[in-house]
Write a structure and sequence with these properties.
Layout lengths: L1 H26 E10 L6 H20 L3 E2 L2 E11 L4 H14 L3 E3 L4 H14 L3 E3 L15 E3 L4 H14 L6 E5 L3 H16 L4 E6 L8 H9 L4 E5 L2 H13 L5 E4 L6 H7 L7 E5 L9 H12 L7 H18 L4 H9 L3 E3 L2 E3 L11 E8 L2 E9 L2
Parallel strand pairs: 1-3, 1-4, 4-5, 5-6, 7-8, 7-9, 9-10, 10-11
Antiparallel strand pairs: 2-3, 11-14, 12-13, 14-15
Helix pairs in contact: 2-11, 3-4, 5-6, 8-9, 11-12
Amino acid sequence: MIHFAGRLLVTSLSALLLSFACNQSYGQLVVKIGVPSPLTGINAANGKDIENGVRLAVEEANAQRIKVDGRDARFELDSVDDQSDPRIGVQAAQKLVDDGVAVVVGYYNSGVALPSTLIFASAGVPVIHPAATNPAITHQGLKTVFRIIATDTQNSGTAGKYAVNVMKGQRIAVMDDRTAFGQGAVDEFKKAVTGAGGKIAIAEYTNDKAVEFSAQLTNIRAANADLLFFAGLDNQAALITKRMRELGMRTQFVGSGGIADSIFLNVAGPAAEGAMAWEYGRPVETLPQGKAFVQKFRKRFGADSLIYAPFAYDATWVAINAIKQANSAKSAEFVSALRATQYEGITGKIAFDPNGDLKNPTSTLYQVKGGRWVPVTTIGTE
């Protein structure tokens, strides 16, 4: 009798534990958000900026105790280091697919995004780009790719028209870093300059690892260029600006996106004064929710964001809202809700065109005045 009672107790306890485990499993839904970005190397600060934008949105969402399909959803950040390397980026993409992420918010580099996006598309995982701007990313016929930032067609195209029509550039020079982003941005700039009736006096290039630019700048000076458009990233742009000043050049420096940040100011030092750069969207501080975002970001991370954290934050909330609307964390079931997005974010109104690009994108020209980036003008398609 005692033996039977013991077996009954064990059976009852086992059933209770199994029931508890099942309730725990069905009671909470874990939703992984993949974040591929450079977390080491020269672009690590910008990669961390993207990651922190996603992290802030995830923490806020979890604090709201959002329910999906009747269950408490817990959003988890699954971050991987793509090292700004296309080969590593593809490996990182496959890891995130293997991890079972529901959606991806990335990349920083267009050259990494182009091949990696195909991995996610094959797995049916949606990708929302907060930083990669090469137009080709969203023109591969993929229905799971979205972007909440202006493309190079908008940003660098606007820069080209402005250089001719407003800045009255007569002898315009261009230079890029030979990456997918750099070459794409310069191509769009050149097309816009030509379309506005301007001329490119000289075209130079470097690579994204270079730190010495005397040969290119000497050629640009010899061509008597009055404006140099550089398509590359912040650190190199700052080094180029410093070298221009050392060579006594009076050529106006104008940068592509990814340059108007504190990294440029710190590296260029006094040589930064007067430099210009075109960035994506409107100045965050001028938008309805912008000041609040700046304050809570600074409070959470102890520093100001760079350029892309607001876009990464918005991209994350766009994904979370699509999951809520579809009442499902299965990629195939919420991707249609992503396509139909109508969201008022930190960076402005977010809706997608048939290619997955942002409708009505804007670009802002900044100039360094008194050691700060100051907005000059904002131009958009609205």
